[in-house]
Amino acid sequence: MFVNLLSDPLDRVVINKTGLTGRFDIDLTYTPGSGQVSFGDRPDSERQVVDDAEPSIFTAIQEQLGLRLEPTRGPVEVLVIDHVQKPTAN
Fold first, then answer.
1. Count H helices, E strands: the chain?
2. pTM, to two decimals
3. Which of 52, 61, 73, 76 lies in the 20 to 30 Å Cα band around 17?
């Protein structure tokens, strides 16, 4: 559930490779958008850095949870719709 929640603010798919199982009570404090820069697949003109007075989500995850977000490429599930038509009248 945690990796699914991370996907939105990071704007990419997050995959759990920790090997950890079970339920955890996580308390993570960070400033949304703080110090965030894209992982590097966007041109410099599209990168945005926000005031980093508070920890970014990357720093917070590493310092508060002892986990690290690591950018990588891999297969992603995609739904392809190859044809659409209006339904016919009954």
1. 2, 0
2. 0.58
3. 52
Q: Is the CB of residue 68 less than 8 Å from the CB of residue 62?
A: yes
Question: Which regions of the chain are under pLDDT 50?
Answer: 34-42, 46-47
The values of phi and psi at residue 28, to 5°, are: -120, 125
Roughly how many angstroms between the first and final C-alpha of the chain, as a whole number?
A: 43
Tell me which residue range forms the domain holding 43.
1-90
Q: Which contiguous run of DSSP H or E holds residue 31? A: none
**C-alpha dihedral (15, 18, 23, 26), degrees to nearest 10:** -80
Residue keyed to tokens 């920890």: 55
Cα pseudo-dihedral 32, 3, 18, 70, rounded to 10: -50
pLDDT digits (tens, 9 = 90+) for 59-77: 999 999 999 999 888 888 8
